[in-house]
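Q: What would this chain look like folded?
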Amino acid sequence: MALPSSLNRYLLLMAQEHLEFRLPEIKSLLSLFGGQFTSSQETYGKSPFWILSIPSEDIARNLMKRTVCAKSIFELWGHGKSPEELYSSLKNYPVEKMVPFLHSDSTYKIKIHTFNKTLTQEEKVKRIDALEFLPFEGKVNLKKPQHIFSVLEDYGLDPNHIPENPHNIYFGRWIADGQRDLIESYSVKKRHFIGNTSMDAGLSFIMANHGKVKENDIVFDPFVGTGGLLVASAHFGAYVYGTDIDYNTVHGLGKASRKNQKWRGPDENIRANLRQYGLEKYYLDVLVSDASKPSWRKGTFFDAIITDPPYGIRESTRRTGSQKEIPKGLEKCPESHVPVSLSYHLSDMFFDLLNFAAETLVLGGRLVYWLPVYTPEYTEEMVPWHPCLKLISNCEQKLSSHTSRHLITMEKVEEFENRDQYSHLLSDHFLPYQGHNSFREKYFSGVTKRIAKEEKSIQE
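A: My prediction, written as structure tokens:
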């Protein structure tokens, strides 16, 4: 399928991690900034080289100001499966598009980038010299050039079988780099306030991008924990708000999660995390509240709900209840600050979450959340469903040989009515996930079997 002639072609150099999350992130960001994917652009698989059609360079630059899955973007001038094909493609590229960057008053340099192979300096120089036919009139400046051009060679994905010649060769004008630096600068290792399940910085930014979070949005996390997801949304200029049932976490009290630290300090809290990154002005508030019993008046308040519900492994799934509901002989936790704490089935939690999102998101707002699954029993039909919400993407991250979690992105497409509240309970889409209420037991049964197998192999 040919790309629309009205759109410019760009080459995206992708990072080789979180592979399943890359396409939904780029799709969401293009949609946010006024671009659109064509059907021919969804077959990249694991390749780091993607050719996109984008309406303008401004949209390309905006894309790179947000993405953590892409390394760089280039205006694509030519490509081929051999040097001869590349040169032929470059000769067919419109000269009028080249001239603004090659005139005599400009400075430039050419870089060589190879994937899955290392070239000698001599080989790199040879490739640069072969481009002498291009109408460069400016001066070479290796330190601070006005324009940077790149030859990018793809030697495939198998490091054990590197071909002599590249599968594909690209040439383009560098436009911008992505936001990969955020993964290090926002690392939880350097964060002031963390917990047992603080979200990895890279995934936090991916979730915010899947949620199409933008400046002046209001973003809510009903299972806020230590607020890692709020930090990512605030970085993109959104005002953030959260709730959690755990009094100690919300107030930064109790035992610390960090190694070699017994108790949390007086300034360890969610607000301090935002202050650490200069984002405190985006902090609205965080409250102690039960997600199963939201205390909100009816209305649409949020542009995005981005959350990581507890799975019952490192953080318990709890809700508040009455003394009549609690089994005899069960003592309440002395640190919980919740009058009575009851178990909260995963299926009930996700039912409540989707219903809450359908009721409180603005039309077009997004819900982004993690769904834990027991892999041997998982089917796509198990993803919880709601009549007001449309499934946008479903990305898997493996946790172990038998468990994984799926990053689910949904968009509100219909206004909520009271009749919608329970309609999906009658749907075939709701019942299958109820089997995952025992996810914790299945998770640990797999761990126990693995340990037993390892011990047996050691004894043998």
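Residues 1-5, 325-336 have pLDDT under 50 and may be disordered.
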